[in-house]
Amino acid sequence: MEESISGFKIRGDWGDVVEHGERIALALRETGVDGDAYHDFDDWRPKSHERIDEDVSAKTAEQASVGEGEGERAGKTPGEDLQTAGEKLTESYEKVGENDTESAVERWGESIGHVARAADSASRKALRKVEDTVYRKVMTQMAPYYFDNELVSANVQEVGRGEAGETFVFEVNINDDELKSEVSDVLAEYESEIDRWHVEAEKRTEDVAAAEGVEPPETEGGPDSTTT
């Protein structure tokens, strides 16, 4: 592993990439990190049973998706916002007729706000129709598969293919400098104390449960189960 100002980087085969992600996920947990930002990264990081051009591509496209705007979060369609905008505009004219200038201006402003919100919702909806295809077919040919949130910035890309197999580069940066230093210390401990890292593999608990006649556990695996 290489450590620099831009993050923790590994170059190797798919197993190396998976192990790197597991080590960082576990190190984050050991420093007390939890919450949605952590779990989003833990879900995105490459797994041993995944393929970069299928699974990681799909997860990257999903996390890069255009988020919901104000109108969508309010449960309003563009058509509903436009209808409300028309009603507010009518009310504005009525207030003008009543010589209530202040209320007229207020209704006018509300009308403009709903028009803007309708346009925003329509734009986001249109973008979502093309962004997944554009990302998968175009962007991944020019840029690495990436993940970015307030906790972690990461990217992985295939950099070589030969008789020995595929070669990848996986780089992860912790966005908070103090936390990054703590994670660095934990990773250094792994390097000096752990002789062999057991990469987590996807387990078919349903098949085993059916064969043995028992219920599968609700949760299994995760970064807590990767060391011995």
Automatic annotation (TrEMBL):
Residues 36-57, 70-79 have a biased composition (Basic and acidic residues). Residues 208-228 have a biased composition (Low complexity). InterPro entries: DUF5828. It holds the Pfam family DUF5828. Residues 35-86, 201-228 are annotated as: Disordered. This is DUF5828 family protein.
